[in-house]
Design a protein that fits this description.
The complex is a heterotetramer of chains A (334), B (90), C (130) and D (103). Chain A is an all-alpha fold and 334 residues long. Chain A is 75% helix and 0% strand. Chain A folds into 2 domains: 78 residues; 197 residues, no CATH class. The longest helix of chain A has 35 residues. Helices cover 79% and strands 0% of the residues of chain B. In chain B, helix 1 runs antiparallel to helix 2 and helix 2 packs antiparallel against helix 3. Chain B is flat. Chain B starts with a helix and ends in a 9-residue tail after the last helix. Classes of the chains: A mainly alpha (334), B mainly alpha (90), C mainly alpha (130), D mainly alpha (103). Chains in contact: A-B, A-C, A-D, B-C, B-D. The interface between A and B is large, with 57 and 46 residues.
C-alpha cells in the first residue's frame, strides 16, 4: 500500500513537471509549482520525514509561491517564444540524466536497513539521542545540538539573504499619521473583500497560537524554530494580503523586524558564547545547567527561539520588500 | 478501509491535476489547486491512520492554512495585474 | 536467463524512485538551461532543488521504519540525518530564491525585460555606444 | 460495539469518497468556470466533513480527534471563503458565464 502511494505521488510529480516544461503562461507555471511542492511534501510524509514535510510545505507551497507571484506582477505573465533551439539543452540533459541513472545502478537498494547510509553516526543518533539529549524528536536533537554549528551557519545565511534583498529592494515607508484618517475613510468606502478580511481576522490569533505551539512543541513532535518562523510569517502575509501593506507596516515596522532578525542570530550565537564562558565548548549545552540533560533542554529551547525569530522576521521583511514593488499604490486603492 | 479511502483520494487528486493542466482560464487552475490542497489535507489524515501513527495531523492543519494563503495571494495578484485577456492559457 | 530477468526486476523495484527523481531533476535542469525567461529559470531551479531533497530523503528511508520521533510501538526508525540536512537546506533555498527574485525585479527595472536574450542584446548595444 | 463504530465510519468514508469523486468529475466535465466552482466547492465542504467524521469514529476520544476537528473547522472556514473570493475575482476580471444565449 505504501508502495502504491509512493508510486502514484511520484507519477503525479512527473506529470506536473512535464506540464511546467510545456506551459508558456508563467502564472500557471507558478501555480503548478505550488502543487509540485505540496506533492513533494506529501512524499516526504510517505518517506517518514515529517519535519521536512512541514518545512517544505511552508516554504515551497507557501512563501516561494507567494514571492514568485509578486515577482510576476512586475515582470509580466507570459514567456516569450524562445528563439533558441531546444536541441542542445535536450542533448545535455539526456546525457547527464543517462550518466546519473548509470550511477544509480551501483547504489544500494532503496529502503534496505543494511545500507551504509544508515550506519556510522545515524545509529548513534537513533540509539543514544533520547538519553543524551532527553527529547523524543531525534531530528530536533540532531539539528539543534549535535549539528548546532551547521544550523548556526544556516541561520546566518538566511540573515545575509535578508541583507541582500533589502539592499536590492526598498520597503516603502508607511504614510505619516497626518494622512491616516483620510486613508481610513477611503478604505471604508471601497473595502475590497470584506469576507476575506473577516476570515483573516478570525484566523490570525489561531495561526499565531499554532506557530507558538509548533515552536515549543518541536521537541516532542514535528516542528521547531524553522517551521514556526515560517508560520508566523504566513500569518502576517495573510494580513498584508487582505488588509493592505500600510496596515501591516503599521503593525510590524521594518525597523523592528530588522532588529529582530539580527536579535535572533545574536540569541543563537550568544548561547554559544555563554556555554564557552561557563567552561564548555562553543554551543555545548551540557554546561548550561548542573544536569547535562536539562542543560540540553535549555539550550535547545533558547536556540530554537533564536531561529524562529530570525526566520519569521526575515521572511516578513522580504515579503514587504516584494509587496512594495508589486502593489505600489495599494494604500490609495484600499 | 483506509486503503480504499487512500486510493479514492489519489484518484481525486489526479482528476484535479488534469483540470490544473488543462486550464483553460487561470481561475480554473486556481480552483483546481484549491481542491488539490484540500484533498492533500485529507490524504495526510487518512495516511496517518493507514500507517497506524495518526499523530502527525499538525501537518494537515498547516497544509489547510498554507493552501488558503496561496489561493488568496494568487487572487490578489491577479487583481493587480489588470492583464486579464481572452487569450486561452496554454 | 530467468534469474537475469528476476535480477533486473528486483533491481528496478529497488531503484525506481531514484530514476523518477533523476527525471524530475533533469526536467528542472532543462528548464534552467532551455528557457530564456528568468522567472521560469528560477522555477526550474526550485524544481531541481526539490528533487535533490527527495533523493536525499529516499536514501534515508528504511523499509518498515517510522518517523524518527520516539514511539513505543516502533520497530525501527528511518535515518534522521538526511532529514536534518534537508530541513536546513530548504530554508536556505527559500532565502536564495528570494534573493534571486529580487535581482530579477531590479533587472526588469533596469532593462524593462526579463528575457535573457533581450537583456544580452541591450547590454551589447550599450557596450558599442561607449 | 466495534462492529457498529466500524460500520458508521465505513458509511461516512464511503459517502466522503462518493462526494469527492462527484466533485472531481464535476470539476473535470462541467463546461465553464462558474459551474466548476459549483461542483468543486459544494462537494468539497461535505466531503471533508464525511472524511473527518469517518476518521474520528475510528480514533475514539483523544488528541487525534481534537486535531481532526481543528482541521475540519479550518477547512470549513477557508474553503467557502476561498471559493467566494475566487468567483468574485473572476467576475471582476470580466469572465462571462455561459448563458442560454451565448452560443
Amino acid at each position: 500500500m505504501e508502495l502504491l502511494v509512493n508510486i502514484s505521488l511520484l507519477f503525479m510529480l512527473s506529470l506536473t513537471v512535464i506540464a511546467v516544461v510545456r506551459l508558456k503562461s508563467l502564472f500557471a507555471i507558478v501555480m503548478l509549482f505550488g502543487i509540485y511542492s505540496l506533492l513533494s511534501a506529501m512524499i516526504f510524509i510517505a518517506l517518514d520525514a515529517v519535519d521536512v514535510a512541514f518545512t517544505e510545505a511552508a516554504v515551497g507551497a507557501g512563501i516561494s509561491t507567494v514571492l514568485m507571484l509578486a515577482t510576476l506582477v512586475t515582470t509580466g505573465r507570459w514567456e516569450k517564444k524562445s528563439s533558441r533551439s531546444s536541441f542542445l539543452p535536450l542533448l545535455i540533459v539526456s546525457i547527464t540524466g543517462a550518466a546519473l541513472v548509470w550511477g544509480t545502478l551501483d547504489m544500494p537498494e532503496y529502503g534496505n536497513p543494511d545500507n551504509p547510509a544508515h550506519h556510522h553516526v545515524a545509529d548513534r543518533y537513533i540509539e543514544q539521542s533520547p538519553e543524551e539529549i532527553g527529547i523524543p524528536n531525534m531530528v530536533t536533537s540532531v539539528l539543534a545540538s549535535y549539528r548546532g554549528f551547521d544550523t548556526l551557519g544556516e541561520v546566518i545565511v538566511v540573515f545575509t539573504a535578508l541583507i541582500g534583498v533589502l539592499s536590492l529592494l526598498q520597503v516603502r515607508t508607511p504614510p505619516s499619521v497626518a494622512e491616516t484618517p483620510l486613508r481610513n475613510e477611503n478604505r471604508k468606502l471601497s473595502r475590497p473583500y470584506p469576507v476575506l478580511q473577516v476570515v483573516a481576522l478570525v484566523m490570525m490569533p489561531f495561526i499565531i497560537l499554532f506557530a507558538l505551539y509548533v515552536q515549543f512543541h518541536g521537541d516532542f513532535g514535528p516542528g521547531g524554530g524553522f517551521q514556526a518562523g515560517v508560520i508566523f510569517a504566513v500569518a502576517f502575509i495573510l494580513y498584508t494580503l487582505t488588509y493592505g501593506l500600510d496596515d501591516a507596516l503599521a503593525l510590524t515596522p521594518v525597523s523592528v523586524l530588522k532588529a529582530l532578525a539580527a536579535g535572533g542570530v545574536l540569541i543563537y550565537g550568544g548561547t554559544g558564547v555563554v556555554s564557552m564562558l561557563l567552561g564548555g565548548n562553543f554551543l555545548d549545552y551540557n554546561v548550561l545547567s548542573s544536569n547535562p540533560v536539562s542543560g540540553q533542554h535549555i539550550g535547545i529551547i533558547v536556540i530554537e527561539l533564536g531561529v524562529g525569530i530570525t526566520v519569521a522576521s526575515v521572511l516578513i521583511c522580504a515579503f514587504y520588500a516584494f509587496m512594495t514593488r508589486a502593489l505600489p499604490d495599494q494604500g490609495q486603492k484600499g | 478501509m483506509f486503503a480504499t479511502a487512500t486510493i479514492a483520494l489519489l484518484v481525486i487528486m489526479c482528476l484535479a491535476l488534469v483540470r490544473a493542466f488543462r486550464g483553460p482560464k487561470i481561475f480554473d487552475r486556481i480552483l483546481a489547486v484549491n481542491m488539490f490542497g484540500t484533498k492533500t489535507v485529507l490524504l495526510i489524515a487518512v495516511y496517518g491512520f493507514l500507517t497506524g501513527r495518526p499523530e502527525f495531523l499538525d501537518l494537515g492543519i498547516f497544509y489547510a492554512l498554507i493552501n488558503f494563503v496561496g489561493v488568496i495571494a494568487a487572487l490578489k495578484f491577479i487583481e493587480r495585474l489588470e492583464f486579464y485577456d481572452e487569450r486561452e492559457e496554454r | 536467463m530467468d534469474s537475469f530477468f528476476n535480477e533486473v526486476i528486483s533491481g528496478a523495484l529497488g531503484r525506481y524512485n531514484y530514476w523518477v527523481v533523476i527525471f524530475l531533476m533533469m526536467s528542472g535542469f532543462y528548464v534552467v538551461i532551455g528557457s530564456t525567461n528568468l522567472v521560469k529559470k528560477i522555477v526550474g531551479l526550485n524544481i531541481f532543488q526539490t528533487s535533490v531533497f527527495i533523493l536525499y530523503i529516499s536514501i534515508g528511508k528504511i523499509n518498515g521504519g517510522t518517523a524518527p520521533i520516539v514511539w513505543a510501538n516502533a520497530e525501527r526508525y528511518s535515518n534522521p540525518l538526511p532529514h536534518v540536512l534537508i530541513l536546513t537546506a530548504i530554508v536556505v533555498g527559500v532565502a536564495t530564491t528570494a534573493l534571486g527574485l529580487s535581482l530579477i525585479m531590479r533587472i526588469k527595472h533596469a532593462y524593462n525585460t526579463v528575457e535573457e536574450d533581450e537583456i544580452l542584446a541591450i547590454s551589447l548595444e550599450e557596450d558599442e555606444d561607449e | 460495539m466495534d462492529v457498529v463504530t466500524d460500520l458508521i465510519s465505513w458509511i461516512f468514508l464511503g459517502l466522503g469518497i462518493f462526494l469527492g469523486l462527484t466533485g472531481a468529475f464535476g470539476l473535470l466535465r462541467f463546461p465553464d468556470f462558474y459551474t466548476r466552482v459549483h461542483a468543486a466547492s459544494i462537494s468539497d465542504t461535505l466531503c471533508t466533513a464525511c472524511f473527518i467524521f469517518g476518521l474520528a469514529f475510528q480514533s475514539g476520544f483523544n488528541l487525534v480527534t481534537a486535531k481532526l476537528f481543528i482541521i475540519l473547522i479550518l477547512l470549513w472556514l477557508t474553503g467557502p471563503a476561498a471559493s467566494h473570493a475566487l468567483v468574485r475575482a473572476a467576475h471582476t476580471a470580466g469572465l462571462k458565464p455561459i448563458t442560454e444565449n451565448s452560443d
